[in-house]
Amino acid sequence: MTPLLIAVIAAVAVALTIHSARRALAERNAVERHHRTLDVLGTLAERAERAEVAAPSAPVAAPYQPRHRRSRSTRRRVSPFAAVGILGAVLVAVAAGWYLAARQPGGASPAQRQPPAKQAPTVAPSTTLANRTPVVLLSSDDQQARYRLQSPSVQVELVATGACWVEIKSGLGQGPVVFSGTLRPGARRAIPTTAASGGVSIRLGNPAGMSVSVDGSVLPVPRPTGTKPFTLLFQPAG
What we know:
With about 240 residues, the chain is of the alpha+beta class. The chain folds into two domains: about 5-65 and about 80-110; about 135-235, no CATH class. About 35% of the residues lie in helices and about 25% in strands. It has helices at about 5-55, 80-105, 110-115; strands at about 135-140, 145-150, 155-160, 165-170, 175-185, 190-195, 200-205, 210-215, 215-220, 230-235. Strands 1-2-10-7-4-5 form a six-stranded mixed β-sheet, with no helix packed on it. A four-stranded antiparallel β-sheet has the order 6-3-8-9, with no helix packed on it.
């Protein structure tokens, strides 16, 4: 709350209090004038009564009985203007106390005293499988592609997108046949490859109908021209 607003509220409260005091004083003066008028009328009535008693020939009139208005209750009533003035004064006192408390050294407004919002801890982005390099392409031609494994053990997975004949051999094609058959669309085949196995050879009858991934990373298989079979060779690290 700014000092200007406090000053405006104080001025309004003082003006209402002064107006209420003036009105109460005017009402009090009017009541006193009324009582003085009644006293004067009573005195005149008593004098008229004594004059009539001194003159017997005149008809005797009934004594004057002044009609006093029903007196108002003597209990003081609180003027609404006075109530508004008192309320304004209380508001001014509260606002002034709040403003002084906020202006004290080291003080702060309620909004400033609120604790700062906790910031979420910054988490370093984890390295995804896509950013890893599980294999390195050594060479490729229209018949085969040779890769070198970057770790002693990897997981090669085949996912058929079309009908594809597959032949898998250990030892870079020099070992026994591990699997031979046709994979239908949607079929999967996992091929664990370790240094102890001496590598692996994968021959694809329809390279365009097969997706190959190594440890979850899709392997960019060179697409040969035509429909000739294509061989993938994975040699151990080292």
